[in-house]
Structure to design on (438 residues):
């Protein structure tokens, strides 16, 4: 299903291409026609990116929302590439200015600007390694208040760019030749915009009516905060252990920004708990949020849900332990007997905020094995300990590797290293699961 869905996203321009060139495919070699082909691909891909940004539940069930966002980014980059080719070939053939062409030019500039800001500020971890881009980001942040949250807000300008490019496409002479072409191209955009409106306007309104409120905020470790919310109407929060949701808190201390956090409490209850590590400006402000504050919750999302009755290996890095808290509790409640191994790696022993819980489960249930790895000593020096082949082999019987399901949650470096190591141990790559929140 994943492969089919992704394939359909990328070959979807074939539908309008057939409307424009059926019976005259020989004309594709003309520079004017080539420009049209690139334009159609760009138009469809940009429209599809808008659809993918709307957190559609059935798409999340197929791919997982973190993968949807990566595909969204890949489609947008591909669309911009085709847009550049479209403009280039148009210039080769002819260049005249009218209202529809002007709309296309403005849309192109807007897409280029939005994508540049997105790459620099919403993917800042990549570019912060370079002194030049880090200084440029700092300058614009201090001088013009351009940061992640503001760029995320500006990112909604994508819908304006899509409307402009739709006007450019529908107003083109080649589209005007057939009412069916105009209907399909216009309908594509209409569907995308309606889905976006539901996501940005209708869904937040519905979430606000759900009436969740903060009932407690406390530090459970040095820089780790636990926030508990309850529903005023005793509405149960549906979902699966291991999933996450998007949270925003109506508080002056953190504004109305929306951020994804893994749910660290069991589903099917009238209270929801998240456990957050203070890593950035927003998460550092969460400890100041007071009880009674309204919380908006959109979710749950994600496919980080282990199957029942099969041997599992869970590998967590730092705050990546949060999905495994409810997952382990749920397996305990369901009285599963298949072996479960949990390895939790942290830099500082102070980060092991729920170590006692896992050790208690291990002492009471023979199917559960827990091991913590602290990579730094009290003086900050390397302890020489890490998750490696020797550790995993000592915990997991080699006869289980062929049927083992592995779930990894942590930094990218951990995910990459563990995936390679586990494949070398004989674990099937299709049974190695992870979600990316960075």
């Amino acid at each position: 299903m994943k492969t089919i869905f992704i394939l359909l996203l990328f070959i979807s321009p074939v539908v309008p291409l057939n409307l424009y060139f059926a019976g005259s495919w020989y004309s594709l070699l003309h520079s004017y026609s080539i420009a049209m082909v690139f334009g159609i691909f760009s138009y469809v891909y940009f429209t599809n990116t808008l659809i993918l940004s709307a957190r559609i539940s059935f798409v999340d069930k197929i791919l997982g929302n973190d993968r949807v966002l990566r595909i969204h980014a890949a489609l947008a980059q591909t669309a911009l590439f085709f847009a550049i080719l479209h403009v280039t070939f148009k210039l080769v053939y002819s260049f005249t200015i009218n209202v529809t062409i002007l709309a296309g030019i403005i849309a192109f500039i807007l897409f280029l600007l939005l994508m540049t800001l997105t790459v620099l500020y919403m993917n800042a971890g990549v570019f912060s390694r370079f002194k030049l881009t880090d200084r440029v980001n700092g300058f614009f942040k201090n001088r013009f208040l351009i940061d992640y949250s503001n760029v995320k807000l500006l990112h909604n300008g994508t819908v304006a760019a899509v409307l402009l490019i739709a006007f450019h496409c529908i107003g083109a002479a080649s589209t005007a030749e057939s009412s069916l072409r105009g209907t399909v191209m216009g309908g594509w955009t209409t569907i995308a915009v309606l889905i976006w409106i539901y996501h940005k306007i209708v869904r937040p309104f519905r979430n606000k009516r759900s009436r969740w409120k903060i009932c407690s905020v406390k530090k459970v470790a040095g820089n780790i905060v636990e926030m508990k919310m309850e529903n005023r109407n005793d509405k149960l929060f549906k979902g699966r252990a291991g999933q996450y949701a998007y949270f925003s808190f109506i508080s002056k201390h953190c504004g109305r920004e929306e951020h994804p956090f893994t749910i660290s409490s069991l589903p099917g209850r009238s209270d929801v708990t998240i456990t957050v590590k203070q890593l950035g400006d927003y998460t550092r402000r969460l400890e100041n949020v007071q009880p009674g504050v309204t919380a908006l919750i959109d979710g749950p999302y994600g496919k980080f849900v282990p199957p029942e009755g099969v041997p599992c290996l869970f590998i967590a890095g730092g705050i990546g332990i949060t999905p495994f808290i409810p997952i382990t509790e749920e397996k305990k409640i369901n009285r599963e007997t298949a072996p479960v191994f949990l390895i939790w790696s942290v830099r500082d022993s102070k980060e092991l905020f729920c170590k006692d819980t896992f050790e208690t489960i291990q002492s009471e249930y023979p199917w559960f094995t827990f091991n913590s790895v602290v990579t730094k000593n009290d003086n900050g020096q390397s302890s020489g300990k890490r998750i490696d082949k020797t550790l995993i082999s000592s915990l997991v019987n080699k006869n289980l590797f062929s049927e083992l399901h592995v779930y990894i949650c942590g930094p990218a470096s951990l995910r990459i290293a563990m995936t390679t190591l586990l494949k070398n141990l004989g674990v099937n790559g299709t049974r190695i699961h992870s979600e990316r929140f960075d």
Observations:
- The chain has a mean pLDDT of 86.
- The domain at 2-206 is CATH 1.20.120 (Four Helix Bundle (Hemerythrin (Met), subunit A)).
